[in-house]
Amino acid sequence: MKDMVWDRILSVGVDEIDDDHRKLVGIFNILNHAVLDGESPRYVAAVLAELINCTVWHFSHEERLMLKHRYDAMDEHQAEHQELIKSAQDLQQVILRGDEPMVDEHIEFLERWLTEHILTADLRLGSYLSQVV
After folding, report:
1. Which residues contact 54 (CB under 8 A, 6 or more apart)?
2. How do the domains of the chain map onto residue ranges?
3. How far apart are alpha carbons 59 and 110 in whole angstroms?
4. What is the pLDDT of residues 50-87, one digit of tens each?
5. Which CATH superfamily is domain 8-132 in?
6. Which of 46, 66, 72, 79 has the most beta carbons within 10 angstroms of its beta carbon?
């Protein structure tokens, strides 16, 4: 699987959110390389944990901005955050239990997970914040 490349299409137009997304893309690429290079399951699990932890922090950051600027779609956006984290944590448990190794299919799932959220919910949030900030 190819690395994710940050480009303008992923920009939501809010620097602090875009900076977070760049970091998440970077960690995703480390995870992708770990799987491609056949790194140990413990290493892969550690990188996945880092991706999840940074995503949780990022979602908290977005939610703080939504609260500060009274974003009217916050409940829906926050529910999507919770769903995304739950699905990533479920995958993490599968990997940690050793039920199956992390494979390209999991990487593709995480890439969709990240890009679809940015290109839908986060673009709407970015558009709103660009108008009120």
Report:
1. 23, 24, 27
2. 8-132
3. 16
4. 999 999 999 999 999 999 999 999 999 999 999 999 99
5. Hemerythrin-like (1.20.120.50)
6. 66
Q: Which of 105, 50, 116 is nearest to 83 (CA)?
A: 116
Model confidence, pTM: 0.92
Cβ-count burial 102-124 (b if 16+ within 10 Å, e if not):
beeebbeebbebbbebbeebbbe
Q: Maximum CA pair distance of the chain?
A: 47
- Report which residue type is found at 44: V
Q: Write the pLDDT tens digit of every residue in 12-61.
A: 999 999 999 999 999 999 999 999 999 988 899 999 999 999 999 999 99
Can you give the pLDDT at residue 97?
A: 86
**pLDDT at res. 65:** 97
* Structure tokens, 110: 């995480």
HSE-CB of 107 using CA atoms within 13 angstroms? 21
Q: Write the burial class of residue 68 (CB in 10 Å: 0-12 exposed, 13-18 middle, 19+ buried).
A: exposed
